[in-house]
Amino acid sequence: xxxAASAMKNISILIIDDDEEDFIILRRxxxxxxxxxxxxxxxxxxxxxxxxxxxxxxxxxxxVDFKLGQKTGLDLIQESVSxxxxxPIVLLTGAGNQDIDRQAMQAxxxxxxxxxxxxxxxxxxxxxYAVARHEFLYVxxxxxxxxxxxxxxxxxFIFIAGESLAFLEVNxxxxxxxGYSRExxxxxxxxxxxxxxxxxxxxKETLEQSGELNDMEIELRAKNxxxxxxxxxxxxxxxxxxxxxxxxxxHDITALKNAEKANLQTTRLKATERLVxxxxxxxxxxxxxxxxxxxQLENIEEKDxxxxxxxxxxxxxxxxxxxxxxxxxxxxxxELSETTLESVLEKSIxxxxxxxxxxxxxxxxxxxxxxxxxMADPEKLSMAFLNIIINxxxxxxxxxxxxxxxLLEDRAHYTVSIADNGHGIDEENLSRLFExxxxxxSAGMGLGLSSALSIFESHKALVQVKSARGAGTTFHVIFxx
Length: 481
Prior knowledge:
The chain is an alpha/beta fold. The protein has 16 helices and 19 strands. It has helices at about 5, 20-30, 45-55, 75-80, 100-105, 120-155, 170-180, 180-185, 195-210, 255-295, 305-330, 340-350, 355-360, 380-395, 425-430, 450-460; strands spanning about 10-15, 40-45, 60-65, 65-70, 70, 90-95, 110-115, 155-160, 165-170, 210-220, 225-240, 245-250, 335-340, 360-365, 375, 400-410, 415-420, 460-465, 475-480. The strands form five sheets. A five-stranded parallel β-sheet has the order 2-1-3-6-7, with helices on both faces. It is rod-shaped. Residues about 1-5 have low confidence and may be disordered.
């Protein structure tokens, strides 16, 4: 494509008119145009011939007579535009008609001229403006395609929003990441995606103060309720009419955050495992001496045997607790087989049936991935889910207790969600939830969730927990397909 300056030095023109005399008159006017521009003129008299020439696009501009036999110049312009012909077309008429003028502009004509009012100056201005406008629109379209490609092919969610942060335009990454269609996004605002209302207030205050927001870490909620960790950037811009809008970029860092949490939890568990092994070794040495000494006490008086039984029974209990601690700190998957998550969940629910009945907790199930096959140890995985379910039961309110267990899938994952409507977990305790021996219960060792996490990690599953005091708790366990 030539630039506007070079295009104006050599302009090829095609005149489509079934009257050769009109062509000769038009040629005379054009030849009288002064300047450095060289004009090359061609003529055709038939509608189809003219249409074929326009579609080939070898001329810089086309002049089309309104009357072309059975069809009109308006028909020719409309058909050319429908065939994606982009060169400028000027409609010529014998007499002025405002209605035809309007129709020509609506059809896509670059200009409208009346033959009886033609002058050299009018033709020169018409040609110059039409060619320059076409060059400008071409560059504009080229830039739009370039930036449209960047907009659609980037790996980040890019969007345009109005002053109220209502979505005006979103790219394909956004629809794939959050599960909403473009039509659904058109009726939504950015705050609708926020997990916490406090983030919305902070975004509003920051934009009001500086007009931009840079790299704010936030948590957003997808259509399937999956929580997505993101970095948000927003900047206020002004369009040609002076109205403000916002350009936004959302970068998904969920995988990075999950990896950080998994590494931290793994580090804690490994440290705990080393500590437990040391403690087990140090405790079992004197414990073995105690048990051996008990075996040697054969001639003890009958009245003292009751105390010996107490020592023996509690020594054995300590020994069993040590074994349990060692197992809880490093459970391992021993037998992997293909199984469905639905069957594993059903087994966990069945095991917890008595507790559910006693606590009057209703269960609502939502399985949308019946074919969620994974390689797993069904027994251990069922035990891990059971620990979460039991935790939810124990946290349930005295009345209207409810637990929701769902199984959803997206392109690459299966997500099991277990939600209760209990008292929730304080923010300061949420980060310690999976620590071995940490518990907020009056009775319990704090090993259930620690053991569950180890089992999930051995199945390469990620665990997310969302909770707030008085708002219940939701566990998301995410398995790769």
